[in-house]
Amino acid sequence: GRGILNPNEVGCGAMLCEAYSDHWGGHHTGFHCPRLSDPPDLSFCCWLGEGLGLKQCCPRSQYHNSMNSSQTGTRVNSKEPVYRLTVVLLYGSLVLVLMLVDFLWFCRARGLSLDDHDSIVPTICTSLIQNPGALKEEGNTLFNAGDMQGALCFYTKALKLSHSQAESAVLHRNRSACYLKLEDYTKAEADASKALDADPGDVKARFRRAQALQKLGRLNEAFLDAQRCAQMEPTNNTFKEMLRLLGAQSQKKVTIQMSSTDARVQQMFSLLLDPSAQPSDRQKAAQNLVVLSREEAGAEQIFRNDGVKLIQSLLGSNQEEVVLSALRTLVGLCTGHQSRTMAIVNELGMEQLCGVMGSGASAVSLAACHLLQVMFEALTEGMNREIRGKDEAILPEPSRELRSMLRHLVEMMPASSVSGPGRDSAINLLVKQVPRKSQRNPDNSLTLWVIDQGLKKILEVAGTVPEMSEGPPLTDNSHMSCSVLLSKLYDDLKSDAERENFNKLCEEYVQHHFGRPGLESKLRAIQTVSVLLQGPSDVGNRTLEMSGMMDAVISLCASEVVCHQQVAVEALIHAAGKAKRASFITANGVALLKDLYKKSENDQIRVRALVGLCKLGSAGGTDFSMKQFAEGSTLKLAKQCRKWLCNESLPPTSRRWAIEGLAYLTFDADVKEDLVEDRNALQAMFQLSEDKTVLFAVGSTLVNCTNSYDVDKPDPQMVELAKYAKQHVPEEHPKDAHSFVEKRLMKLLEAGVVSALVCMGKQESPALTETCRECIARVFLALVERQEDRGTVVAQGGGKALLPLVSESTDVGKTKAAQALAKITITSNPEIAFPGERIYEVVRPLVSLLTLDCTLLQNFESLMALTNLAGISERLRQKIIKEKAVPKVEGYMFEEHELVRAAATECMCNLVLSTEVQQLYVATGNDRLKLLVLYSGEEDERLRKAAAGTLAMLTAEQPELCARIPGTTSHWLEILQALLLSDSLELRHRGVVVMLNLMQAEKSLAETLMESEALEILSVLAKSTEQSPISRAAQHCLDKAIEYGIIKKPEEGGEGNEP
């Protein structure tokens, strides 16, 4: 009731008197009743009296009288609301009239009339959708009016229709402006970058990118863009002001960052230099210094504040954790920074760094090895691009520091003060840094320098017998590491003269020790030969053929001294590497090895003799007819190897030799069957695979068990000719048949072979050679042969483990790993098998299979895998295009093999979703479109589906191609009609979509189609009782023909369409 009271009325509410104005314009604040000065019964609010216009607190009775008076007043003054309603109605009518006038003006501007009201909106939309220029203008209008979302929509639609690179660049630039207004700076930067990719001289796009980068906090990049804008338009004050502002912001950011970092660095330094500080506090300070060094600002502050001297003092600490922190801090300082690395090398000196690496602590040695690795990379590869731009002019050539580092590493080889782990780390560094990374690089000067200065020092380590008093301390891995280093150096030589020099130096060293009096010198010579046989075997064979060497080996096998026997037996084992040498040793040494195996009381001798017998027994390889021993002998040897392998009470060295024996014996299929049945032996072998020295042996054993080695199957006619000529013909063991191999693979999977392979691939050791990686890749390929097993391999980390193998293996190993990736990608969801960014790493290996050197099966599987990837996202398609796969895919579309040809066409079907690939078909002067039309009429249904699907997408995305289809072949109409009449619903659907695209593109094409039998076929398809995509598309074709006026709309109950 309060809403209709006036000052002449009395009641206005209970308990609360609201604020009001009196007749004289005075304002009165509200108050609650009763007030402090009122009696308690005055708890209601009333007007003071008629004509006074004031409020007061009153009793209940007076309030009710006021309410009655209020109701009477309401009826008397009821005309006032009516007057107000009339005003509202008049105002609304005026607004409607103005809107109608505006709409009529809009229609007149576009030549429309109200009689066409049913087609006004479709006509407008059609005219805009088909014209990117009109869409852009509408977007500009909305942008100027402040409607950013509307402008964004129009620019986006125009981009989809635009075929001009210049026009697309302008649209990207305009859309970037919209995103800037909408404060979506990431998209603004992306669109401006796309505009600049098309036109680097677009100053507006560059300025907008600078604005976006500024908002994103990427001030350095923004400054470069603003600087470029100012260079292009020197008189533009806006660019100058932005440049000044960005400079100030960058300086402020750097100052804040540096001051904050400087304070933290000083705090850490204070703790480390305080002798009274607690050891735990100093240790924490050292760890915090590591964290700071990983940031560029922190690394620079540490370096500038004489942090290297402090770190130098920490390297002499007795606390291992403090030394580790000091080494890790140096890693942060050197990573990717050549100038700091050179300064640190000169200040610390290689003597101290090599001394730390040669210390007894294994963890410290590994950390120092990692530091030197980072230093090598910084000196050889240079600094990061941003840093190099500032310092390149003042940096001297780092070759002096590199030679100094290599010299100290070589000098560590024979030094008795260097620990075994430290020596292994030095060998590891030489393996990684000295040989060329690629044979295309003609400069092998580092290798020649190491051979000239340090080959004899390396041979001293190779010839050291640990059980003898002389020689530096070694680990179990040292001899294997030396073999790898010698092999790498020998393989890096380019000419016969260089290889001959290498042979000469090795022969001189061996002859020097073998010719000296005393047994220890001869043992050193034999040990050196043994290491050479494991590494550069050609060199080892030449030294083994030296006068008296083989006789000395055989005679020492009969020595009563265990150490002498051990060296001789190992040399005998490694000497039996080739069939020629094996036959000689079989005739001269088998009886000796058997005696050692049966009569020796030392297990280390027995297991080595056993491996020698295993190696000789397997000299025939997989040839079932070439057996060196009697039937059943190899099974007995294998059984003993498995027994030793599972015996945890034996030392690890003896168990490792048992794996070596199995690596040879598993050429025999009977041995393979027994091994995969022995779950305990498999588990023991997988457990020992963590040992670096047996990586190749485990890999070889698994390759043999899975039959993943290459087998050249002879031509059957040649086999018959060989039999006729009584020549030897290799025979396959019956248990090497496919069914047996498949069962062995299943048992290996159940035993956990995938996890073992993953761990083997992660090893950081010279023993993990490219050949070892090839073995791992071969086994993986065998494991994913069956589709049912691929999920298991992926779930246990096999997909991730394969990625490094495609870049760090032999050429054969890379191909095998890439093929395994292809098999996984074909049948598994690639986004699950290779999550995140890992999926993009799969593309390059797959493309590498599209070469003539690979088999047709590898080509086919690669195309299938790329088809799956191309269907996932535009970013993946761009990655495939960037790897230059499109020309290769097009080449395989002409392949004679129908499966490969169809797979290539399917891959192209997904690739044409990218505008770049579409433009290849839009370009004139090629037969790409013709090939698709012809393939759509082939007999191979798979090929027809792929070609017709590609044609359907191309004609939808690029309507201009429709007019060119009749010119591809005179049979184009027959081919399309055949698609419509196909028994395959998929082919029929593709045909109808192509028809619809042609009719929508040009009226003349629609007339040509409707004059043919296509009209009758489409009419039948449109009458289908089921509302399928085919019937709906066919009906759209007929509707389009009616719209063009080519055919008449059928009357109700009519029999069809009449032209």
Automatic annotation (TrEMBL):
<dbReference type="InterPro" id="IPR016024">
    <property type="entry name" value="ARM-type_fold"/>
</dbReference>
<feature type="repeat" description="TPR">
    <location>
        <begin position="169"/>
        <end position="202"/>
    </location>
</feature>
<dbReference type="InterPro" id="IPR011989">
    <property type="entry name" value="ARM-like"/>
</dbReference>
<dbReference type="GO" id="GO:0048471">
    <property type="term" value="C:perinuclear region of cytoplasm"/>
</dbReference>
<keyword id="KW-0517">Myogenesis</keyword>
<dbReference type="Pfam" id="PF11701">
    <property type="entry name" value="UNC45-central"/>
</dbReference>
<protein>
    <submittedName>
        <fullName>Unc-45 myosin chaperone A</fullName>
    </submittedName>
</protein>
<keyword id="KW-0221">Differentiation</keyword>
<keyword id="KW-0802">TPR repeat</keyword>
<dbReference type="GO" id="GO:0051879">
    <property type="term" value="F:Hsp90 protein binding"/>
</dbReference>
<keyword id="KW-0812">Transmembrane</keyword>
<dbReference type="InterPro" id="IPR024660">
    <property type="entry name" value="UCS_central_dom"/>
</dbReference>
<feature type="domain" description="UNC-45/Cro1/She4 central">
    <location>
        <begin position="429"/>
        <end position="616"/>
    </location>
</feature>
<keyword id="KW-0472">Membrane</keyword>
<dbReference type="GO" id="GO:0030154">
    <property type="term" value="P:cell differentiation"/>
</dbReference>
<keyword id="KW-1133">Transmembrane helix</keyword>
<dbReference type="InterPro" id="IPR019734">
    <property type="entry name" value="TPR_rpt"/>
</dbReference>
<dbReference type="InterPro" id="IPR011990">
    <property type="entry name" value="TPR-like_helical_dom_sf"/>
</dbReference>
<feature type="transmembrane region" description="Helical">
    <location>
        <begin position="85"/>
        <end position="106"/>
    </location>
</feature>
<keyword id="KW-0963">Cytoplasm</keyword>
<keyword id="KW-0143">Chaperone</keyword>
<keyword id="KW-0677">Repeat</keyword>
<dbReference type="GO" id="GO:0007517">
    <property type="term" value="P:muscle organ development"/>
</dbReference>
<keyword id="KW-0217">Developmental protein</keyword>
